[in-house]
Amino acid sequence: MVDFHALRHTYISRLVRSGAAPAVAKSLARHSTIVLTMDHYTHTLIEDARAALDRLPAIPVGGPAPATVRAAGT
Predict the structure, then answer these.
(1) Is residue 74 part of a domain?
(2) Structural domain for 50, as ranges
(3) CB-based contact 29:12 (threshold 8 Å)
(4) Sign of the C-alpha dihedral, residues 57, 59, 61, 66?
(5) Residues with Cβ < 8 Å from 25, sequence gap 6 or more?
(6) What angle is formed at CA 39 by the lines to CA 33 and CA 45, rounded to 5 degrees?
(7) Based on the structure, what is the number of domains in the chain?
(8) Is 33 within the bounds of a domain?
């Protein structure tokens, strides 16, 4: 027996994981709200979190000293 509802979860999760914008996934899923798409149908894996962290730019170390910053009064 095939669980078509489970296939929707897989389809939408894989769309988002592949880099599709949340609004595109919402549209392709034919959902009425982005909350439904992102909170209920999209599932992340620990590998997704690791990949997102790996895409962050490196923090420069040992470069020139930063300029002195003045207080802005805010």
Answers:
(1) no
(2) 4-54
(3) yes
(4) positive
(5) 12, 15, 16, 37, 38, 42
(6) 140
(7) 1
(8) yes
Which amino acid appears at position 22 of this protein? Answer: P
Place of tokens 């490196």: 58
- Tens of pLDDT, residue by residue over 7-42, are 889 999 999 888 899 999 999 999 999 999 999 998
| 40-50: average pLDDT | 87
DSSP 3-state helix, strand, coil percentages of the chain (rounded to 5)?
55, 0, 45
Query: Tell me, what's the pLDDT at 65?
Result: 62
Measured CA to CA, the distance from residue 70 to residue 68 in angstroms comes to 7
Amino acid residing at 20:
A
Long-range Cβ contact pairs of 6-12 (< 8 A, separation 24 or more): 8/41, 9/41, 9/43, 12/37, 12/41, 12/42
